[in-house]
Design brief:
The chain is mostly helical. The chain has one domain. Helix content is about 65%, strand content about 5%. It has nine helices and six strands; from the N terminus they run ααααααβββααβββα. The chain has a three-stranded antiparallel β-sheet with strand order 2-1-3. Strands 5-4-6 form a three-stranded antiparallel β-sheet, with no helix packed on it. α2 runs parallel beside α5, α6 packs antiparallel against α7 and α8 packs antiparallel against α9. It is globular, with a radius of gyration of 18 Å. The protein starts with 7 loop residues before the first helix and ends with a helix.
């Protein structure tokens, strides 16, 4: 297993370079770049320098996966600060909590945050790319590809692999033994499924002109809560699974 021993200053410079490149490639917009740097610096100087690898792996693989959907990608201006915090915000809470009350369980929960985030992102992006039949995870009814709450076999498999990638990185770096690695893998995958459940039940859906959309006016709301969008669903699913992980290993 590998051990990452690099100065936080050097890692900070590396982080800034990576974020700059991603911003130039339109993987991040300016607000997303600033949010990523602030999150990264908090990990480097408050939590543990070696753990910066997880948001970097998530950001790189998640951004590359998003580029597969060229039509949707053409409409994107890069991940915003809201998107960055929807996925990275829970880990920031863990960083702050660990500074106030040090406990080894925080480290596993931190990794779980990115296992859920990468699992959900790869599931969503690859599910859209392959366009296999998609079903509502709660109602089991056929639904349009790309709508939150839907699952397909290709998207589910991609989510399983995404969670496994983060777990493997943790094992490779010596941050988790085999038992903990499996727990992280399972927790990440469960988080992806929970994201789909919340997307089906809580996330707002609108019927405009006979077509179901995820954004619209309150008067066209047919399901979910008006102010709950995909960012909230991402954030909540990661928080719930990370908290359960902390409780189990406390």
């Amino acid at each position: 297993m590998l051990t990452l021993i690099v100065s936080p200053i050097v890692l900070s410079l590396f982080l800034i370079v990576v974020v700059f490149v991603l911003e130039r490639l339109n993987f991040l917009n300016m607000s997303g770049a600033l949010a990523t740097i602030l999150l990264g610096l908090s990990i480097l100087f408050v939590f543990h320098p070696a753990y910066i690898i997880y948001p970097i792996v998530f950001l790189l693989l998640g951004s590359l996966a998003s580029k597969l959907n060229k039509q949707a990608d053409a409409e994107r201006k890069g991940r915003t600060a809201v998107q960055v915090l929807a996925n990275g915000g829970p880990s920031l809470f863990i960083v702050l909590a660990s500074a106030i009350y040090p406990k080894s369980a925080w480290f596993g929960a931190f990794i779980v945050c990115y296992a859920v985030a990468l699992s959900d992102t790869l599931s969503s992006e690859l599910g859209k790319y392959f366009k296999h039949p998609t079903y509502d995870v709660v109602g089991f009814k056929l639904m349009d590809v790309g709508l939150s709450g839907g699952v397909s076999w290709s998207g589910t498999l991609a989510g399983f692999v995404g969670s496994g990638i983060i777990a493997f990185v943790a094992y490779l770096l010596g941050h988790a033994d085999m038992h903990l690695c499996v727990m992280i893998w399972v927790a990440g995958f469960v988080g992806m499924l929970l994201d789909s459940v919340l997307g089906s039940t809580l996330q707002s859906k609108y019927n405009e002109g006979g077509k179901i959309k995820e954004y619209g006016s309150r008067e066209y709301l047919v399901r979910g809560i008006h102010w709950v969008n995909n960012h909230w669903v991402n954030f909540l699913s990661i928080v719930v699974v990370a908290l359960l992980f902390v409780l189990v290993f406390w």
